[in-house]
Amino acid sequence: MSLLANAGIYLVLDVNSPRPGEALNRYEPWTTYGPYYLEHVLRIVHQFSGYNNTLGFFAGNEIVNDEVSARESPSYIKAVVRDMHQYMKLHSPRQVPVGYSAADDLRYRVSLANYLECGEPGTNVDFYGVNSYQWCGHQTFKSSGYDTLVDNYADYSLPIFFSEFGCNAITPRMFQEIDSLFSQQMTSIFSGGLVYEYAQENNNYGLVEIAPDGSAHMLEDFDTLQRQYQDRDAYYDFSQEQESVRPVRCKTHYAHLTINRKLPDTPIPEMLQRGLAIPHGKFVDVRINATRFKIFDRDQKEIKLRQIKSTNDLWAPAATPADKRPIQKLMFFAPQVPRLPLVPGGGQHHQGTTTTAIPGQPPSNNNNQSSNKAVINKKANSSSALRFSDTLLQLLLGSIIVGGPFAGLIWFDLI
After folding, report:
1. Residue in 28, 62, 220, 241 annotated catalytic
2. Which of 3, 21, 24, 83 is buried deepest, with most CB atoms within 10 A?
3. Which member of 67, 164, 177, 270 is catalytic?
4. From CA 52, how far away is CA 285, in angstroms rounded?
5. With contact defined as beta carbons under 8 Å apart, do 159 and 127 qualify?
């Protein structure tokens, strides 16, 4: 986490893992929602809530993905969200936003979003991620169904974004959806997205091939995605912010889901009350600003300059720069979360180097920088404390060029 923060990189972390007992069984969740599983979840929450570059937690990823899981799992997902919120309220230095990442299935993702949105404070998610692979090859905003997707969530009260996107049914991938995702048509509803995925695996979604010796080899998709981000300005009008009211009362029925009015009781109430006797995560002193591993471009030419051009001072994250230029600060909407200094706009790509959106650093005044920039309404108050969705959008607009050659926001699955 210190290395990530030193490079200005924020983390969205799934609290589940593929190891036995450390994820909900989607078909029989009562067999896994027990002391062992929940202690694992709370340990992750306890430790990672200590870092101010932990942007959010995913309570689950694609748990509901068919008829059986839609019947058995929703109430247990909501119970995990409740337990995470309760624990952070009592024992964490800040309440990190908790969300869920939904499978690309129209039967469930909208109704599940509504179910996880509702309820008494502390039982609902703070944001919602949609895994979307519906834009494949040459498409448009309408032919891809993105217009329907926007309509489906037009009245959603919580921040929402693509937690995965990048269909590879047609290769090579063109990533034309970038143009729509960061257009005026979508940014009023969706706060950007995360491309799947960084490292190449057997499913052929990777942007970079990691060799056995640890060297990184950029693939064709890497170059294509980089160009898509660099060739476009991203649009967002802060003056169009709308206040939405989150429903406190849940409905008795959600399409294609089976829900219980009463959530399962937590299996470890004592642990929730007393907390874990382990330290919170904290930054360590790092001075690493380069990698010892080789990096090769698509033509297998070695990139010699492998240093991070700008790094963050972990010990003074909100320090005023020497030139005294103002810093725009954004704030999570979740309660009791301290202001997190961020900057909009983004970084300029140089071969083999990185300029990131860094806590405590001002935006660049280089009007010719080749990066994706937020088109911000000049009437917007730049000193306003904006909600989590705006914080997320700024990171996605300004920092994510996965990787160009960096990512300003990443999602980790624990392994």
Report:
1. 62
2. 83
3. 164
4. 15
5. yes
